[in-house]
Design goal:
Layout (H helix, E strand, L loop, with lengths): L1 H14 L3 H18 L6 H22 L10 H36 L6 H27 L3 H26 L3 E3 L3 E5 H22 L4 H28 L15 H22 L1
């Protein structure tokens, strides 16, 4: 047992995180996504996504409180409104719901008085756009007849970007992309992301959407841009607020936002591209 413990500790030190729990959590999340899309008309997926959004808002609220910034508690309500609109009315529902919830949020903050209004208003609208608005595109994809294939395409491409970027970065990474934002991101890791996400895109779109391999490769390359940008944005938030992780809910990953940062920015991109090629 002591030898196994030593090996596990060596792997964690080499990987920079608790690798085995991280893999286990990833498998569980994948199982929940597939299961929730397979039964009860995908309502379970809506509930699962909304639960993650609620947790993400809570993590953002907790993080911003370190800088004495309070976001509006009505974000839980407005998130629900945006999600319901996305599920029943699609993109038009997202647009209308967001247009209504933004002024509602501003008025809700105004009831607190003028002190720190600007900070709270900007932080609240940013949180609204960053978490529930972007996440609502997942519901639009899931509602489609081939919703499982669309969501799995998103999951596979983001996983290719994150996993192979991480592996290439750990094994070969020497040249940092933006050390002041994300010191572990390297150009070598980005090359790994580009190669294998392009391959993943080619396989997914040729297999499930009857597209030419180069179309899938282009979608994969676009995913590298959006997913990596999402990771950088969340890293910038954490560095600005002096945080290592946004939470500790997911062993080996951190918080919900640490796991969904790439997914949030990639979901509207994948929605748009699959509709364009489909």
């Amino acid at each position: 047992m002591s030898d196994l413990h030593s090996i596990n500790e060596a792997i964690n030190k080499w990987a920079g995180r608790k690798l085995l729990p991280s893999i286990g959590v990833g498998i569980v999340i994948l199982g929940l996504v597939i299961g929730s899309l397979s039964f009860f008309d995908r309502i379970l997926f809506v509930l699962l996504a909304l639960a993650f959004v609620y947790r993400g808002i809570w993590e953002m609220d907790r993080a911003l409180s370190r800088a004495n910034i309070d976001i509006c508690n009505s974000l839980y309500l407005t998130s629900t409104v945006i999600f319901l609109a996305a599920w029943f009315e699609g993109i038009a529902g997202i647009a209308v719901a967001t247009a209504l919830t933004v002024p509602f949020t501003l008025v809700a903050i105004l009831t607190r008085g003028p002190k720190d209004f600007v900070k709270s208003a900007f932080a609240s609208i940013f949180t609204l756009a960053y978490i529930p608005f972007l996440a609502s595109f997942l519901l639009v994809m899931a509602k489609e007849e081939d919703g499982l294939r669309r969501i799995m395409t998103l999951v596979v491409l983001v996983a290719c970007n994150d996993t192979f970027g991480y592996i290439f970065g750990v094994l070969l990474g020497k040249h940092k992309i933006a050390p002041t934002i994300s010191p572990k991101k390297s150009w070598e890791g980005l090359i790994g992301s580009v190669i294998f996400t392009a391959i993943g895109g080619s396989l997914m779109l040729s297999t499930y959407f009857d597209q030419a391999w180069w179309v899938g490769a282009l979608v994969g390359l676009g995913t590298v841009v959006t997913a990596t940008s999402g990771d950088f944005i969340e890293s910038a938030i954490k560095r600005d607020l002096d945080l290592k992780d946004m939470g500790a809910l997911l062993p080996g990953h951190g918080g919900v936002l640490d796991r969904l940062d790439s997914v949030l920015l990639t979901s509207p991109f994948i929605w748009a591209l699959l509709n364009l090629v489909g």
